[in-house]
Amino acid sequence: MTTQPVPGSPRPSSAPADRNAGAADPHSEVARLLARQHRTMHAVKALLSRGVSEAERASAMLLVTLAETGPVRAGALADAVHSDPSTVSRQTAQLVTRGLVERQPDPADGRAWRLALTAQGREFLTTLRAHRLALVHEVLRDWEPADVELLAGSLERFTDCLDRVRRELAEGTSPLLERPAPAPGGALPDPDPDPAEATP
């Protein structure tokens, strides 16, 4: 008789059996799984958004941020998404052209402008969020509600800690800054590549 998996229970990993065996440091396993999650999520997003340019996907983050912050100046928006002001300026110009974002006079300074979502932008963002929620439901469709709540709590705690590290790096107080610099080019190589999870 074939044993059926229990909903909410972890599915068998496709990774080699000895990959996780004897892992003495759970932090190493978390780092490996985060790298795997990043690659897999990138591949899923690419498959779901075929025909959508990278610039359009990046612009979606600006819409999400504007929905959270309300009208802000371009410089503040660039800070909020941790991006270069010139890059954000180009992206917001495209969003203005598409009618998703509008420029409003800054009441605090008549010479300055603020960026704000339009009604069309809010409608577009609602559609994006519906697609994101559908993806989460599909990924967690076999999970028990209690497991989903546990995941949400753990992700919130992890994200809060990650944001703390971001602030410390920006302030120059992070102990990570004392570590040797990465290889030339600035990119940290993936120490655990998995060809099976590469983006098509």
TrEMBL record:
InterPro entries (UniProt xref): HTH_MarR-typ (IPR000835), MarR/SlyA-like (IPR039422), Tscrpt_reg_MarR-type_CS (IPR023187), WH-like_DNA-bd_sf (IPR036388), WH_DNA-bd_sf (IPR036390)
HTH marR-type domain: residues covered: 27-160
Gene3D superfamilies membership: Winged helix-like DNA-binding domain superfamily/Winged helix DNA-binding domain
Keyword annotations of the record: DNA-binding, Transcription, Transcription regulation
Biased composition (Low complexity): 175-189
Biological processes annotated in GO: response to stress
Classification via SUPFAM superfamilies: Winged helix' DNA-binding domain
Pfam families recorded: MarR
Span list, region Disordered: 1-27, 171-200
Molecular function GO labels: DNA binding; DNA-binding transcription factor activity
Keyword Transcription regulation included in the entry's annotation: yes
PROSITE patterns named in the record: HTH_MARR_1, HTH_MARR_2
Biased composition (Acidic residues): 191-200
Keyword Transport: no
SMART domains associated with the record: HTH_MARR
Protein name: DNA-binding MarR family transcriptional regulator
Species of provenance: Kineococcus xinjiangensis
